[in-house]
Design a protein that fits this description.
8% helix, 450 residues, 32 strands, six-stranded antiparallel beta sheet, five-stranded antiparallel beta sheet, mainly beta
Length: 450
């Protein structure tokens, strides 16, 4: 080869190497997007508006930012946020989402940074499970909450996705640990074969993951007559078996499973500052699990309903707060005195809720499975139960982005109570459908309103 030809070939190879390197680098970049400021009147209620309780409206307009979450280019049925996010002590907001599928299903963690008003994908669940292979039943939902441990790591569990999709191949859901500093996601194992975890919580002191565990029944598209029924069920029409489960994330083993047999409903439960867990027993009372004794007792406190929809806290005074699914009542639970005080009635099903650290306000967005009342962010005064709307979100967001805010299970407040961070289900260019696309809304709550 002549010298000029040699050098031309070398330069071409070098350029090609750079192009390939850049292509790989771009391919490795996580999905990300920046939020935009939303203009408009957030203090205008929707027309023909008649909520079930008295309320006031804030006098100062909040600052609102919106970002549609960039989703993987993979199938989903539909993309959804069913889990409860986390405002981490590092200042970031972590959102769990999933494709809702069964076979080859996957869920993801996204990180929203209020400092830069940007979001990025930080983890996918499937990649952490070393035994997973194409065609396996996957991890279509994170339905419980993201929990911050004393070590700063985030602990959570998955829950079966599209349960009508070949669920006879379902084996069981897993527990995971995510390190926000390193970005490392670790599979902590499958606590129990055949069980999923729609409702989870955490005891940071003992590193125990708690779950209202549901046993899979069966049923699938490939089994239209429901011939497949999981062990312990006589018929597909049987109610779900629900048990309280305690998983030691250090030893990676179940140390308690049982109780919770009084109610075939488990969507959230309390954990106090000492790590004691409390769940509904079906009679309006609470059962208590003590991690120091590994035993269950019954509380004397009576809830204003039977089914717990969402719990938050404890605040600095040790108080816990819950809202019921069957009566929509918002109440305060004092675990030290074993007493419950009803605060007010929410406008609709309200799985999106949080409390300020000082225990002064509880914030609620009504409507878990769809839009409600103009999608208001409601501030409840814990002292007297009065309600104040900080922002009616739907109209300004729709007018500027054509994104129809749907239901939400995911509301978190920053430590100082100055911001509300919300993960929404929704849909672009559709006033009738509010599913399949996702967004994060950041609200700066005016100091004069808090």
């Amino acid at each position: 080869m002549s010298a000029p030809l040699f050098w031309r070939a070398t330069i071409c190879l070098a350029v090609l190497s750079v192009i390939v390197f850049q292509a790989n680098a771009y391919a490795a970049e996580p999905l990300s997007a920046d939020a935009i400021a939303i203009e408009g009147n957030f203090l205008q209620p929707p027309p023909e508006f008649s909520p079930p309780t008295e309320y006031s409206i804030a006098k100062t307009q909040p600052t609102v930012r919106f970002v549609q979450i960039p989703l993987p280019n993979t199938p989903a049925n539909p993309w959804s946020i069913w889990g409860y996010g986390l405002a981490h002590s590092n200042g970031k907001f972590y959102v769990p989402l999933g494709d809702h599928l069964g076979i080859d299903a996957n869920s993801y963690l996204y990180e929203y940074d209020p400092a830069t008003h940007s979001i990025r994908q930080v983890a996918d669940i499937q990649s952490a499970v070393k035994t997973f292979k194409s065609g396996d039943f996957g991890f279509g939902k994170i339905h419980g909450r993201l929990n911050e441990g004393a070590d700063g790591n985030i602990y959570f569990a998955t829950y079966w996705g599209q349960w009508r999709n070949e669920s006879d191949r379902y084996e069981g859901d897993h527990v995971f640990r995510f390190n926000p500093k390193s970005g490392q996601l670790t599979d902590l194992g499958m606590p129990k074969y055949g069980w999923g975890y729609p409702s989870t919580h955490f005891d940071p002191k003992h590193k125990l993951l708690y779950a209202e565990a549901h046993q899979r029944k069966g049923n699938s598209k490939g089994d239209p007559k429901n011939n497949y029924v999981a062990a312990q069920y006589k018929d597909y029409k049987d109610p779900y078996h629900v048990e309280f489960l305690v998983y030691d994330t250090e030893a990676r083993k179940v140390i308690f499973q049982g109780a919770h047999r009084g109610l075939n409903y488990g969507r959230d439960f309390f954990v106090d500052a000492s790590g004691n867990a409390y769940w509904n027993n079906g009679e309006g009372s609470l059962q208590k699990y003590d991690p120091t004794t590994n035993q269950v007792t019954t509380s004397k406190a009576k809830m204003p309903g039977a089914k717990i929809r969402r719990t938050v806290g404890p605040d600095k005074n040790g108080m816990l707060y819950g809202v019921t699914n069957d009566t929509h009542e918002l109440f305060q639970f004092d675990p030290a005195k074993d007493k419950i005080r009803t605060l007010t009635k929410t406008w609709a099903d309200s799985p999106a809720m949080d409390v300020t650290a000082d225990g002064k306000f509880v914030y609620v967005i009504p409507g878990g499975h769809g839009p409600s009342s103009g999608t208001p962010l409601i501030q409840v005064n814990v002292k007297d139960g009065s309600q104040k709307v900080i922002a009616f979100l739907h109209s300004p967001v729709w007018q500027q982005t054509k994104f129809n805010l749907g239901g939400t299970y995911c509301l978190q407040l920053t430590g100082d109570g100055s911001k509300a961070l919300i993960g929404f289900n929704g849909k672009v260019d559709s006033t009738k459908k509010a599913w399949g696309e996702l967004a994060v809304v950041e609200i700066d709550i005016p100091a004069s309103e808090r």
